[in-house]
Amino acid sequence: MASKRILVIGTANIDFLLKTPFVPARGETMISEGGYTFVPGGKGANSAIAAARLGGETVFCTRVGDDAYGDRLLRIYAENGIDPRYVKVDRSEQTGLAVVMLERSGDNRIIVFPGANRKINETDIENSFLCYPDAVLTQFECGEKQVIAAAQIAADENIPFFLDAGPAIPDFPLGKLRQVEVFSPNESETAILTGIRPNTPDDCLRAAIVLCNKVKIKYVVLKLGSRGAFIYDGKYCDIVESYDVDAVDTTAAGDAFTAALTLEYMRHGDIYRAVKYANAVGALTVTKVGALSSLPKESEVKDFLLKQKETL
């Protein structure tokens, strides 16, 4: 099977991960029982590392600061086999930072300081297409202008464009995207973009139709957490069930899911197979703490699917 080159355009952060029993209320000071650490993050970086670990030929377009954190991220990308030629070191901005409060339940709360990510521009994006990708993956986190620029170049060059809708931007002009191969929001992002909470299959269908009325989308894939994923192709819909695991941290699960879906879809062209594979990757991701440390390798996914008696 020929390797697929995935161009990921997105954010690169260093994550300040703080473990806490629960998020304190307004005005409350709490002594945390957990520890803290600094780990690589950013939705773009998470997706790029996930795709690379799953066997994809991954090219990453982003910006980091000219600081110790930026140097650390560059080393990590190289160690994970990512092509870093379009990772630009910005001399005027700090490396992006995300503060992640991880609750005992496995839920998290995240505050992001964009830093150098704010300087990713259309020239950076246009240059990155010189790698001749088979597919392009990006997220709303890198900014409205950047997403639109990536989508327009992908459409001009007839390259499949995959979009993770996180974090959701309520007034994002979806019509400017021209065409999207797979559009994948989670539950809260779906509600923000459509006004419909995808609590039931009927709600999922109504929300997917709203999205398809706003932009030309080949497949809508709603990420429903422990309920699996909902697929809609403009005519038919289905739910692909999730795998039952003990979740300890949901950080990066959505990023890993969309990266896995993109890669497997490009390998085989089968959206149902791709979503099953992505569900397995997402399930493995939530069983470990942190972003980078939780992203599984291709061999781990194969072993997991064998144990689940699942064949793809």
Helix content: 25-40%
Low-confidence stretches: none
Q: What is the 3D form?
A: globular
As laid out across the biggest beta sheet, the strand order is 5-4-1-8-9-10-11-12-13
Overall mean confidence score, pLDDT = 93
DSSP, total strands: 13
Order of helical and strand elements:
EEEHEHEEEHEHEEHHEEEHHH
Decide which structural class fits the backbone: alpha/beta
Give the number of helices: 9
β-sheet strand percentage: 25-35%
Radius of gyration: 18 Å
For the terminal residues, how far apart are their CA atoms?
A: 15 Å
Walk me through the structure.
The chain has 312 residues and is α/β, with parallel strands linked by helices. Helix content is 34%, strand content 26%. The chain contains nine helices and 13 strands. It has helices spanning 43-53, 68-79, 122-128, 144-156, 187-194, 201-214, 253-268, 271-285, 298-307, and strands at 5-9, 13-20, 36-41, 57-65, 83-90, 96-103, 108-113, 135-139, 161-164, 179-184, 216-223, 229-232, 237-240. Strands 5-4-1-8-9-10-11-12-13 form a nine-stranded mixed β-sheet, sandwiched between helices. It has a four-stranded mixed β-sheet with strand order 3-2-6-7. Helix 1 (43-53) packs across helix 7 (253-268), helix 7 packs antiparallel against helix 8 and helix 8 packs across helix 9. The longest helix is centred in the C-terminal third of the chain and has 16 residues, at 253-268. The radius of gyration is 18 Å and the shape is globular. The two termini are 15 Å apart.
